[in-house]
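pasting for ref
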Amino acid sequence: MSLRAVFLDVGNTLVRERPSRFEIYAECARDQGLAVTTERMTDLMRKAHRELPREINGAWRYTERWFEAYIERIFTVELGLPPERLPQLSRALFARFSDPATFELFPGALELCERARARGLVVGLVSNWSQRLPGLVERLGLAARIDFVICSAIERAEKPDLEIFRMALERAGVSADEALHAGDDLDKDFHGAQRAGLRAVLVDHARARTDKAPRVHDLRELDEWVERLCA
């Protein structure tokens, strides 16, 4: 079946944080007088993400109320920040991640989307992200070059679950075998898309993966992959 749609992950596929989210959290901790290295913060953030449920008192993962519980877990439970200082810290973190200057597009991101649409493909972003994603996409110049955004915090569905890929297929008006999904996460992006019946490819900017999954190393290679599937 010929390709009719391309779905793209956002974080670490089209966009990266500068500095990393781990460094940002560690910097905010130090601003509060907490002595924590970026390496220690990385461990704490990954542990909190792994152990917290994806829904907390009705708040879906990556919504603001979910992040408030996440921040409390890291800074108060793990690092001992007094609870009365959490609101100020949360506001500072939310401000950083609302600022488009925190993010940068990988080289070729805009061109990838433009060329895919020029080939007649529907282009959608499918991402596990906060409800701020549509605004960020707009401010980074991506919105005019894509057809839709599916954001986990808004839809209350997330990769690798089949539901979020089915939403993308319905939005694009294509069948699973007519779509390609590209992203950086082996389980969420590659295996998740495959289980939903889509074609899939990993985007390995860091050239760090050792598994056997098909991959590209930059967005230029991804554009070439899409071109071959359209041929």
